Amino acid sequence: MTTSQGAQSGGDGAEQRLQEQFDATIAKDQRIEPRDWMPEGYRKTLIRQIAQHAHSEIIGMQPEGEWITRAPSLRRKAILFAKVQDEAGHGLYLYSAAETLGADRADLTERLIEGRQKYSSIFNYPTPTFADVGVIGWFVDGAAICNQVPLCRSSYGPYARSMVRICKEESFHQRQGYELLMTMMRGTDAQREMVQDAVNRWWWPSLMMFGPPDGDSPNSAASMAWKIKRHSNDELRRRFVDMTVPQAEKLGVTLPDPELRWNEERGHHDFGTPDWSELKRVISGDGPCNEQRVARRRAAHEEGAWVREAATAHAAKRAARSARAQEAQNTQEGTAA
Ligand SMILES: [Fe+2]
Ligand SMILES: [Fe+2]
């Protein structure tokens, strides 16, 4: 980036002025754009966060994708197919946003499949029944909305703008999940049991999606100061619980937390503490499906090599053709003159 190189060659005074400009932009709630100077820490934090987010979208296609060929009706298949495809699109927007910061998409993919970069812990849990598809839409996409709506006001322009598009699709995801569960709850006892079982399995992992408690979240303070993040993990978790409890009542399922109750004084629900050691374990690679998810992603990447090679060869051919055409035109103009 030219401005940042300018800052380095311009000495401390210039760097300081750029830093002041950056701080003022953040203070005024204006956006930082790719052409703007930004502190290295800001750039690195954003690349890490956006890459993890992109990886989560792509890995997140797997747990539900397993049900596309086994969906119980054409309608459910079409909905699920559209949803999983949306997640691929979210991944693409986000990898593109990371590229505006100087990251290389091939390098990010490499980091993911070598286990050097993380993705959301939630996608390391299995989806044994079709009710899981509904509960993922309701809880996981619901949690994603809680997380991502404030990110539409994130200080980095390309990230914020990609979130606007993504959030519109996430609300469809959440609704299709809830509607599927409503349908199952109107069905047989076995279907209702299936829904309750999926709710029991996904509730705590969904609460963990918001990350560790605030006191144990080392990157949060900087992200909040830079207005990359607008709310703390615990605050977002609270919002999710408050949003979900009435939906559970309407659906007719119980949430597996004996401590869950409305606190009149606080105007929020009280709820139990997730098992943070489980989150640590899953994040560090020891969840029920970590190995399977990464292996699958690696295989897809390797099997897709021919597509990337063909696209690169095609682009090179087109570039050569237009260079030849340009050259011919130049010669023609030369002889005409
Ligand atoms: Fe998504
Ligand atoms: Fe989604």
From TrEMBL:
Domain of life: Bacteria
Region: Disordered, residue numbers: 310-337
A Pfam family that the UniProt record links to this protein: PaaA_PaaC
InterPro entries: Aromatic_CoA_ox/epox, Ferritin-like, Ferritin-like_SF, PaaA, PaaA_PaaC
Cross-referenced NCBIfam families: PA_CoA_Oxy1
Name under which the protein is recorded: 1,2-phenylacetyl-CoA epoxidase subunit PaaA
Organism: Streptomyces kebangsaanensis
Gene name of the encoded protein: paaA
